[in-house]
Amino acid sequence: MASISSFLSVARAPFLLLPVTLIAVGSMAARLENPISWSRAGLALIGLIALHMAVNIFNEVSDMRRGIDLETQRTPFSGGSGTLPAGLISGKQALYFGIVCSLAGLLVGIYFFRLIGLPVLILMIVGAVLVIGYTDLFARIGFGEISAGLGLGGLPVLGAALIQHGHIGPSAIAAALPASLMTFNLLLLNEFPDEEADRHGGRVNLVILFGRPAAARIYLLAALLVPISILGAIFLQLLPPVSLLAMGPSLFLVRPASLLLRSPKEHPPLSSLAANVKWNLSTNTILALCLLIERIPW
How far is 197 from 66, CA to CA, in rounded Å? Predict the structure, then answer.
């Protein structure tokens, strides 16, 4: 009988901080326009966590079936959880768990569809395609990073804003862009140490498609676009000036980016993978706090 910790492990529980930051950013962006419903934000968070878990679970099931997880050199940030190879939970149990998580996310989506209407349905359909198609389609045609950037980056930010007032404001759109870029890079950097295992398992990601030097340049470009997009949004008055603080965490990437560009054929060290995660989570968190501060009547 699989333990609760095994189910949490195959769902990659430590990675579930990302949905929290995304819902926070989208909700605070909506709050710039009008007061928000915290209960709606909480329900949206539950739905997004369930869908994020489903993506992680389906990815682990697929990687085990294709032998990828038997060849990777696991780190805390890449290479899978190791739950299935260790026999802590069966593939069938994991698959059923992923389906349950998907259904939980779907139920939340249906609730908001009945509440808001067609715009939610459109986001639901796009999100469902990204969730279902990531592992066995998008990750095998060179579209995995973009799929992840949208499905676990920009779209949740837009969705969190949408379910508050029934529309997506310009501030939410501005906040969704850096979120997409950061999730794109979160996956891209983790693909460097997994290159050989991914290649043997039939994946076609940017590292395999273009080679490590070109993939490193793509990573750097996406990283640079994050503070540029925040600065541009402030200039266009889509985000408040205090949002400049959200550019600060980009300093986490100075050493990882330089190491990646200098020696792209070497695996990024653990410290670089950790810095990549810190950059993502702290940028989203600080941006959400900046948007919250902007609405506080001092």
Answer: 10
